[in-house]
């Protein structure tokens, strides 16, 4: 079949749809191999489809609302014209295929006419055959429109005939992880200030369960009601896992800071002293726990159950007391160990070393007088400060004077011991040069009471900076100094503390000698460990001295 008139240009797809509609009014017949339209004789108008309305006496059949989507041709499944509500105007022909809009579905097939229904005009093409989920169409190589290659997303509808105006919502996307907001982190300064304002006005009651004590930066008072004051013992965490499995999963370290000799404010009373006589404090026979408010008395008060190991212990006859209707001793509030959390037991001779009460402790001040210490001004500063600090030595409660005795030693390559006995007009110096075999040259007059030898001690502290002002000795010893202090305390048969003021590396020929570690080329190399090997002798002696001090109650 030949085409009369001009030939319409080829249809070109635009984007994901099709090109603009092309008028076919000047063409008669059909395009070969197109499959778009059927053949009609010349001079006849194309028929109207069922969806375009009816021009007779029969009222038009109403179908589903028109969809903004592509329509199919009855023959090849290509796009068809959208439905019209009235007949075509004279001279108006069929336009080109409608533009396909993405994310839309095809309209449902038109409803069939009931039997016996007549319509005016020539019969139209048969109804299109397509499913409720029509795929898109693309221009084929032969010039016709056919189904698209592959599935097209977002073209389905929830149910047949349902209007769809966009793509179906997909699954919710996971929210991005929230970043740490610096403003949400509590400020340590603000936490401290809030705790001071909220916890500093009222006393902290230790008997309330589940109450966290105030911070250490808060000035507060403590009311003891059975638990120890946080001044004496404070836990790192007050939320403790209740099971071992939870503790393993949490991996939260638990520790306690214990200060049995903590200083108390003037408003708080000192711990009460409990004296159980010669028998000493009452303790558990199994775990050696001391009597406390949580011990449970049973059998009318003749025995008590340990709160730590649940061991049943007998109550001494002198400690027996009856129980009230609640199971508590009637004298519970008369005994500090049964009603308070912090108290002191008066120790007996059984708790002392060698079953002998100890002598008052002693403080020994050992001052480095080498060239480096003199030139830096450390020696003069120490001597000036010690004059005033000796008036503030620890003392027993209510005592006017301290019972602590003091002694003085200076050293560089050798050691100088000083006799500051109160009967002397001027201090005396004794020199020990054999540092390999250390001993104490004097006993009487080395450790003295400050109040008795105040004048001699002051004279000594004034003379030390002047005696060593012109020294040129740069080498010092260290381990023999510690050994000399231990020997002095051992000879005095008392505990004590050594105060060493050292300024340089002990490189003098003596036990515990160390070598200079000034070779910077060995840093960050394999030979850096040589320094540790060379220090082995000095470190081992220092470790042995530490164990000896611990055994002899020295520090």
From TrEMBL:
Protein's cellular compartments: Cytoplasm, Cytosol
One CC-aspect GO term: COPII vesicle coat
Which positions fall inside the Sec23/Sec24 trunk domain?
Answer: 358-530
Low complexity: which segments have biased composition? Answer: 58-70
In this chain, the stretch annotated as Disordered covers 1-186
Supply one GO molecular-function term: zinc ion binding
Could you confirm whether the keyword Transmembrane helix appears in this record?
Answer: no
Name of protein: Protein transport protein Sec24C-like isoform X1
| Compositional bias of kind Polar residues | 23-33, 41-52
For this UniProt entry, what is the primary localization, expressed as one broad class? cytoplasm
